[in-house]
Amino acid sequence: MPEYVIPPAAIAALPIAGSNALFPVRRIFCVGRNYAEHAIEMGSDPTREPPFYFTKPADAVVIGGADMPYPTVTKSLHHEMELVVAIGTGGTNISIEDALKHVWGYCCGLDMTRRDIQNEAKKTGRPWDMGKGFDLSAPMGPLVPANGFDPSKGRIELKVDGRVTQTSDLAKLIWSVPEVIANLSQLVALAPGDLIMTGTPEGVAAVVRGDVLEGMVEGVGEVRTTIV
Ligand code: MN
Predict the structure, then answer these.
(1) Which CATH number do you get for residue 136?
(2) What are the pLDDT digits (tens) for 89-145?
(3) Is the distance from CB of 217 to CB of 106 less than 8 angstroms?
(4) What CA–CA distance (Å, rounded) separates 157 from 94?
(5) Distance from the CA of 197 to the center of ligand 1, in angstroms?
(6) Beta strand 212-217 with 221-226: parallel, antiparallel or unpaired?
(7) CA–centroid distance, residue 60 to ligand 1 (Å)
(8) Domain span at 205
(9) Could you tell me which of 199, 128, 148 has the C-alpha nearest to residue 169?
């Protein structure tokens, strides 16, 4: 064991449904504009341009239904309900055909976004990091082992205070889960522990303190948090 000059950070981890074991999180990659109706609501053309990515730090995860503090320096915190893919076996230049063999499991996640900061960054051509990759910006539900789960279809939905705000189907992903894994593995060497947030459907909106967010993906499970 090396001797560190300061204590090393704790390993961020996701709980696993029905188990006491944890899934250690290495990196969080997020796909932008991966549902046509969301691309349109964001003012973009939903034609099938190659997928693009941004990241969040591993310790942005909020687990166990814990509260999410309303972040600093924003007046427009938006919810984005997403299917999250957890990589169990890494690789580069993974083929679309082999992609799902690299998946350990799936969970539900919220790509919480400082929309005002992101919009300003888009306008000025600056990075999205402070709009997307801020502290505690990724509430996630328990991870479910893949067990042959087919991510090509299934209802995805988010309720805010019991009212449905986002509802769609994984079949509407512009870039499917295997295509995203294959494409991303050309850009970086995917590694065990990497998470991929696959994009959000239409219906994104601002939340305020006190809002209870409850998301689900059919066959995967749920995510829940309260904004405080
Ligand atoms: Mn997103």
Answers:
(1) 3.90.850.10
(2) 999 999 999 999 999 999 999 999 999 999 999 999 999 999 999 999 999 999 999
(3) yes
(4) 30
(5) 7
(6) antiparallel
(7) 14
(8) 13-226
(9) 199
